[in-house]
Amino acid sequence: MKLPELQLSLQFARFDDVQLHRSALPRHWVLRALRHALATPAELTVRIVDAEEGRSLNRSYRKKDYATNVLTFDYQQRPVVMADLVLCAPVVAQEAQAQGKSLMAHYTHLLVHGCLHAQGWDHEDSLAQAKAMEAQEIVILEGLGIANPY
Q1: Contacts of 57 (CB under 8 A, 6+ apart)
Q2: What tens digit of pLDDT does each residue of 1-23 get?
Q3: Tens-digit pLDDT profile for residues 87-97
Q4: pTM of the model
């Protein structure tokens, strides 16, 4: 199976334990995970941020005053997916530890989740949509050697 083309900008904000997060997200792995989640070519920016930036973005764009694990800013779906995925490092690390997962496995799940959002998948409008999106995530993650996160 030929995977879609992907132009990727991978960015890490400056924060205390950024090296831990860089180690969990080598560029080649981020490319592989996202390409497995894409149905069409894409131009994506993935930015790993601290809690302050994550909270500020969530407050500004979703009117929710807390840092969340992943935010997807989708600008275009066809013919090329264009989006920014913002992952909040301390939230991802805390969730990975609480769920007994490696940091890399949890980041991979959230990259796939955010990438599906960028392509129009949703889980907030109906239970059927949520189940369909979860099923798609499970299939993609299995292809990457990542266990079912649910």
Answers
A1: 49, 71, 86
A2: 789 999 999 999 999 999 999 99
A3: 999 999 999 99
A4: 0.96
Q: Tell me the two tokens of residue 111.
A: 């990259």
Distance in Å from the first CA to the final CA of the chain: 26
Structural tokens at position 117: 């959002």
Judged on CB neighbours under 10 Å (0-12, 13-18, 19+), 53 is middle
- The DSSP line for 85-145 is EEEEHHHHHHHHHHHT--HHHHHHHHHHHHHHHHTT--SSS-HHHHHHHHHHHHHHHHHTT
